[in-house]
Amino acid sequence: MAPDAGFTTLVVNAGSSSLKLALLGDGDDPIAVRELDAPADRVDPAELTEALRGAGLEDADAAGHRIVHGGERFREAVEVDAEVRRELEALTALAPLHQPKSLSALDAVSAALPEIPVVACFDTAFHATMPPAATIYALPAEWRERWGLRRFGFHGLSHSYIARRVPELVGAPAAELRIVSCHLGAGASLCAIAGGRSVDTTMGFTPLEGLVMATRSGSVDPGLLLWLLEHAGVSEHELASALEHDAGLKGLAGTADMRAVLAARAAGEERAALAIAVYLHRLRAAIAAMVAAIGGVDVIAFTGGVGEHSEEIRKEAVAGLEFLGTAPEVQVVPAREDLEIAHQTQAVLGA
Questions:
Q1: Which residue of 100, 131, 239, 251 sits 20 to 30 Å from the alpha carbon of 327, by its own alpha carbon?
Q2: Last residue within a domain, chosen from 122, 144, 177
Q3: Range of the domain at 67
């Protein structure tokens, strides 16, 4: 470990098919990184221990874990003890595809490095500041109260980083800025940020709500889904799988890769042109909705794989926003959820 690294945080990010590990110190650049293939819902403790030692990741002062869902209980990052661990387990039903692997990674790291404190950092927590008007679904009160049905929002670690980073980039206090954060990747969501706080976002009870994504549908008329279940003979499993894995750009253009879709559009493929048109139509409408939620906009920030690397999408997304008056500043901000996790971990521990 570098002698001047200061307080070091092992950042643990369990994705759908991989486990990313990074050791961060006082600087922005990781001291050490390692990525493991982990397609199942469990992390192999022996493999993880070997990876930590082999990559020099075991010299950490603390571990910060990305946890997708914090429910209503966890509104900010928290140090993990036995009680918190039990509560995180109880939230599995809200994120069945992500929570088990995140908790498995948490347990494996804690077993390998039992002497260091562990902090859970939530993808939902940044949106805990949204007002009731933005979180409440117009559903029967009994349903909302019985099952805790509400809009949670996701990508909070990414949007939270945008809320901290953009003021540094533009040289203005966070309290004075209205930002629309556009996290455009395989998953995609927007966040309306005012005074450094989330006011609205496009994802809801699940990450399916909102924008057209790589393989996710985004918002669809619930009546259409009921029709498929009742009249078309589509099973619940088939419906869930299609909305999550076979819709979005893949459903429209036959591929989930935005680069391939843009290339096909440039080659004159009508299906690709339609896919981009649908993607941008939804994106522009959602940007306008975020602007309305915060009463104007000073900066539109793009992050995520598509947001960072596709100048075409950025330009076409902000085209037609002249009605907003003075054109907002556009910033491209590399996604650094690892830095946000390290920042939150150190804040919780007072490091």
A1: 131
A2: 122
A3: 9-122
Last residue of a domain, one of 105, 122, 139: 122
Q: Do 160 and 269 sit in the same domain of this protein?
A: yes
Question: Do 324 and 205 belong together in one domain?
Answer: yes
* Predicted structure pTM score: 0.95
Q: Would residue 128 count as lying in a domain? A: no
Q: List, for residues 250-273, the tens digit of each pLDDT value.
A: 999 999 999 999 999 999 999 999
CATH code for the domain of 55: 3.30.420.40
The 10s digit of each residue's pLDDT in 56-93 is 899 999 999 999 999 999 999 999 999 999 999 999 99
Residue 123 appears among annotated catalytic residues? yes
SS3 letters for the chain? CCCCCCCCEEEEEECCCEEEEEEECCCCCCCEEEEEECCCCCCCHHHHHHHHHHCCCCCCCEEEEEECCCCCCCCCCEECCHHHHHHHHHCHHHCCCCHHHHHHHHHHHHHHCCCCCEEEEECCHHHHHCCHHHHCCCCCHHHHHHHCCCCCCCCHHHHHHHHHHHHHHHCCCHHHCEEEEEEECCCEEEEEEECCEEEEECCCCCCCCCCCCCCCCCCCCHHHHHHHHHHCCCCHHHHHHHHHHHCHHHHHHCCCCHHHHHHHHHCCCHHHHHHHHHHHHHHHHHHHHHHHHHCCCCEEEEEHHHHHHCHHHHHHHHCCCHHHCCCCEEEECCCCHHHHHHHHHHHHHCC
Single out the catalytic residue among 61, 123, 200, 338.
123
